[in-house]
Design a protein that fits this description.
It is an enzyme of class 2 (transferase). The chain is built from nine helices and 14 strands. By secondary structure, it is an alpha/beta fold. It is globular.
Length: 315
């Protein structure tokens, strides 16, 4: 069982357009609505891989009810915490060439009582889980320290925890020594306060996060691959990708693959890379199933190419 926590979930509405003309009345050629939010995406990927998962999230209004229903349609139990505000709705506009324009809503403001109810739900469910994955941005009303408290609560319940967030929330969570943190290259650069130009720079930044409390760092480096830095060493993984269709949710698929494979060591890194590579070759935010994975396309090594320049260096 993998429990996910999404403090700011969403309904994701996607409209496919023949063209994006500002100031015009646009008619969609297709549209769809899907459950969204980083932790929700991890649950979707875990379920697609055939594993049990429960999604904890604040849910409010008819939007929250629909989100719970959509999760159920995917075989995912929604452990929803009722909140006064309505669950946010995010909009994605897709042009024929694959260009995405996203409009992400702020989401409801969470009260102190609702925040405590979220922690209580995690505490009650964490004892029966192998991993807790808390992912995404914090909604209004939750301070950065809330993630640190969540890590502490999960540890008291005897669960291992993975954190995928950024900025002050990630910085605060490090103090409670999460088993895994999963930044991308931009988030890694932000939290250490310096640019990353090479894979070696990313390794040093990941080591800094371990010095500050993270027991392992799984870092997504976009098209360059992924890094795992833990107590046993540093490992680099990459995969051949035929064609990129959408990178939406690819990092969440990677984390799901990593945790489902045990969440430690080079074998779990290989699973993370395989899931991420499969996800970018699928449309929209579709999560890979076992038949989508190509383990033979994945390479992992302890001989990390430290001098290799990043395809997308961080400023």
């Amino acid at each position: 069982m993998i429990l996910t926590v999404t403090p700011n979930p969403s309904l994701d509405r996607t409209y496919e357009l023949p063209a994006l003309d500002r100031g015009s009345v646009l008619r969609a050629t297709a549209d769809r609505v899907e459950p969204g939010g980083k932790g929700v995406n991890v649950s979707l990927a875990v379920a697609a891989a055939g594993h049990a998962t429960v999604a904890v999230a604040p849910l409010g209004g008819p939007e929250g009810a629909l989100l719970a229903q959509l999760l159920g349609d995917h075989g995912i139990e929604a452990a929803g915490v009722p909140v006064h505000g309505s669950t946010r709705v995010n909009i994605t506009l897709v042009e024929p060439d694959g260009t995405l324009t996203k409009v992400n809503a702020a989401g409801p403001e969470i009260t102190a009582a609702e925040a405590d109810a979220l922690l209580a739900t995690v505490r009650a469910r964490a004892a029966d889980t192998r991993w807790v994955a808390c992912c995404g941005s914090l909604p209004r009303g939750l301070p950065p320290e809330w993630y640190a408290e969540l890590v502490a609560q999960a540890h008291r319940a005897g669960a291992r925890i993975a954190v995928d967030t950024s900025g002050a929330a990630l910085d605060a969570a490090l103090r409670e020594r999460p088993e895994v943190v999963k930044p991308n290259s931009e988030e890694l650069a932000e939290v250490v306060g310096r640019p990353l130009a090479t894979i070696g720079d990313a390794v040093k930044a990941a080591q800094d996060l371990r010095d500050r409390g993270a027991r392992a760092v799984l870092a997504s480096l976009g098209a360059d691959g992924q890094l795992l830095v833990d107590a046993s060493g540093t490992y680099f993984g990459s995969a051949r990708v035929t064609a990129v269709r959408s990178n939406v949710g690819a990092g969440d698929a990677s984390l799901a693959g990593f945790l489902a494979a045990g969440g430690t060591g080079p074998a779990a890194l290989a699973a993370a890379v395989a899931h991420g590579a499969a996800a970018v070759q699928l449309p929209g935010s579709a999560m890979p199933r076992p038949t989508d994975l190509v383990p033979a396309a994945v390479t992992t090594t302890a001989r990390v190419p430290l001098d290799r320049a990043l395809t997308e260096p961080t400023p």
